[in-house]
Amino acid sequence: MRIVLVGPPGAGKGTQAAFLAKNLSIPHISTGDLFRANISQGTELGKKAKSYMDAGQLVPDEVTIGMAKDRMEQPDAVNGFLLDGFPRNVSQAEALDVALQADDVKLDAVLDLEVPEDEVVKRIAGRRICRNDSAHVFHVEYKQPKTEGVCDVCGGELYQRDDDQEETVRKRLEVYHTQTEPIIGYYQAQGLVKTISALGKVDEVTAKAMEALGR
């Protein structure tokens, strides 16, 4: 299956992408991974992306699209893939269609993870990260540490990242609604969108997603 995963910040896209990719035996292709791989490997696209990033500028669509196209043409993606974080806007969605048509393939589904805005804010603004290891993540409501402000794993200080503050989260949501959400309408016109609620436990959301995908 060839799937695009879409949803607002805090919808759990990364978590669901990993589970779905494993269940469907297809690679999980995330924008972040694409950038890191191309930059670390020193590819031409990676060099271009790094030059824009070092200058504090947005990486142009054509560079991102080029990276995604190269990745989708790798042997492990011949029978399908799950795109996470791409496309981010309608122009990227249109370019993706062109790239797939050139290879005589098409998307099977666009999975839309739906979460109320207040829940998104609660999920992200409540996160607390360990200063010693960012992989140690807690939440003021959903995953409380045994001792407030202290990491259960290593005893490090827990803090709230600037990106996780409520004002910043709401700005990120505005960007999502303005730039990314329109791709849902674009794909709805093609009959590809499957919308599910991303509320509930991780395995419950995964089960709903698999059912929506007909698996």
TrEMBL record:
Its predominant location is cytoplasm
Its subcellular locations are:
Cytoplasm
**Which annotated residues bind ATP?**
G10, A11, G12, K13, G14, T15, R127, V137, F138, G200
List keywords of the entry alphabetically. Answer: ATP-binding, Cytoplasm, Kinase, Nucleotide biosynthesis, Nucleotide-binding, Transferase
- Annotated catalysed reactions: AMP + ATP = 2 ADP
Which is one Gene Ontology cellular component term of this protein? Answer: cytoplasm
Give the source's domain of life in one word. Answer: Bacteria
Q: Which InterPro entries match?
A: Adenyl_kin_sub (IPR006259), Adenylat/UMP-CMP_kin (IPR000850), Adenylat_kinase_CS (IPR033690), Adenylate_kinase_lid-dom (IPR007862), P-loop_NTPase (IPR027417)
Every Adenylate kinase active site lid domain range = 127-163
Q: Which Pfam families match?
A: ADK, ADK_lid
Under the heading SUPFAM superfamilies, the entry gives: P-loop containing nucleoside triphosphate hydrolases
Partners and quaternary state? Answer: Monomer.
Comment, domains: Consists of three domains, a large central CORE domain and two small peripheral domains, NMPbind and LID, which undergo movements during catalysis. The LID domain closes over the site of phosphoryl transfer upon ATP binding. Assembling and dissambling the active center during each catalytic cycle provides an effective means to prevent ATP hydrolysis.
Protein name per Swiss-Prot or TrEMBL: Adenylate kinase
Name its species: Streptomyces xanthii
User: The organism's lineage?
Assistant: Bacteria, Bacillati, Actinomycetota, Actinomycetes, Kitasatosporales
Whichever gene encodes this chain, its name is adk
